[in-house]
Amino acid sequence: MTTTHVLETPEADVVYDVHGPAPADSPRPPLLMVGQPMEAGGFSTLAAYFPDRTVVTYDPRGLGRSVRKDGREDHVPATQAGDLHGVIQALGAGPVEVFGSSGGAVASLALVAAYPDDVSTLVAHEPPLVGVLPDAAAAERAGKAFRDAYQAGGFGAGMAAFIAMTSWKGEFTDDYFALPAADPAQFGMPAEDDGRRDDPLLTDRSLAVTAYELDVDALTAAPTRIVIAVGEESIDVMTGRTALATAERLGQEATVFPSHHGGFLGGEFGYAGQPEAFARKLREVLEA
């Protein structure tokens, strides 16, 4: 059973879905699944592997069904943390457990830093925190290059450049920057320009996510158990490297999960991982 709710704030109407039993009937606390820029629908496969407990998914403000009223277009982890705090309060069943993926992992780390009593366990899967990398300046340059490709050529050009960047193994060296422009056709992307320039992943709108500065003191002082997760296939690429470096900053080793950056996905985006194995590992970690 799934019910849909709206958290109304002066700045945005944030839509979230509650799957499975009501929190009072769940054997464990609610499990929030948080993405960015991915919306609630991206967790449909993973949520299906937790039918025994309350699972909450949501659309970050300004994405999907969550409509902004503040006139802004940027995606800021601290703002998203406030929205998640509001959702948790509305559930009335905290502290909760959280699985955050990619930018959602960054928002979840911001949530724990700002509202440490909201979360009992956070599994932060491959947070793309550029600032923790030893080659942070080069990674920022690579990020600017895919955003420039999007502005110049549209979605296909931008996404091809993004995939090339996130597939690169190791530090961003001169060899990387010497590569020719990524060919959209190589990645099954359209070559024609649709004229839009509003993609949250390929513009400066989400720059605050990758530029977020980890609040190590707040996170280590929080009562929350924090687990930084990395996909076994991602370890050498950027999001895997950021996960390993984030874990090191927090004085731990990253926990290895099956598959890649989207390892929990089914066929939602044509980038399937190993969702059954991923869900099994997530349950194991949460119940440890």
Report what the structure shows.
With 288 residues, the chain is of the alpha/beta class. It has 10 helices and 9 strands. It has helices at residues 44-48, 77-91, 103-114, 136-153, 155-167, 174-177, 207-210, 216-221, 238-249, 275-286, and strands spanning 2-8, 12-19, 31-34, 55-58, 67-68, 96-101, 119-125, 225-231, 255-257. Strands 1, 2, 3, 4, 5, 6, 7, 8 and 9 form a 9-stranded mixed sheet that branches. Helix 1 (44-48) links the parallel strand 3 and strand 4. Helix 2 crosses helix 3 (103-114) and helix 4 (136-153) runs antiparallel to helix 5. The two termini are 27 Å apart.
Kindly name the structural category. Answer: alpha/beta
Strand content: 15-25%
* Strand/helix succession: EEEHEEHEHEHHHHHEHEH
Q: What is the terminal separation in angstroms?
A: 27 Å
Number of helices: 10
What's the multimeric state? single chain
Q: Count the beta strands.
A: 9
How is the biggest beta sheet arranged? 9 strands, mixed
Low-confidence stretches: none
Secondary structure: helix percent: 25-40%
The general outline is globular
Radius of gyration equals 18 Å
What integer is the average pLDDT?
96
